[in-house]
Amino acid sequence: MPEPTTFPSEDAAFHFFDGLLPVSTREMVGLWKGSSVPTGHPLDGVLDNLGWYGKRFRADMRADPLLFGIGDHRLLPIDPFPIPLGLALRFHRFARTEAAKNLFSHLARHLRAKGPVASLRPMPFRNATSAAMVYDRKPVIDHFRKIDRDRVLGVMSVEGDDRHYFFELERVAEPADA
After folding, report:
1. Would you call 115 exposed, middle or buried from its count of C-beta atoms within 10 A (0-12, 13-18, 19+)?
2. Residue 177's pLDDT band (boundaries 50, 70, 90)?
3. Which residues, 6 or more positions from 131, have their beta carbon under 8 angstroms from its beta carbon?
């Protein structure tokens, strides 16, 4: 089975995803480093360009869905609520530029989450029930399947949009000062 680094299409990515095993919510607890899995989606590479680190899932099943790296080994949780999804999808080309990266680095502190902004729960998706992360104030769900013990493939589904954004998460150790 190929490694999920890139796929020629969403259909090819779903073929891989559908062959993976479900993952339980308890297996997701911890800190995960994320990266885009290109499939031709408008958001391919956008989060990576803006400094996205990954996600953190807590034992109480709450989550920090958007962690960004700032400074030396610090993670900043972002609340996506103020960010209009429609604009993000429309201006995806700009979001991959150095100018967007610089602008986001200045805005990120103003988007700081005051606590977890999503929940982890089991959900049915594509003929299997597996861990999913549901955003509190956005019509977004991330569905997960297990690649191996320390890696999962995620699929972001946005209500009202038939396209899906794929990403990989790899479990990492929590920083000592977290």
Report:
1. exposed
2. low
3. 22, 23, 24, 25, 27, 28, 120, 121, 122, 123, 143, 144
The region that residue 30 occupies, defined by phi over 0 for left and psi between -120 and 50 for alpha, beta otherwise, is left
pLDDT tens-digit readout, 148-164: 999 999 999 999 999 99
| Cα–Cα distance for residue pair 48/32, rounded to 1 Å | 14
CATH architecture of 10-172: Beta Barrel (2.40)
Domain locations along the chain: 10-172
The model's pTM: 0.91
Residue 89 φ/ψ, nearest 5 degrees: -70, -35
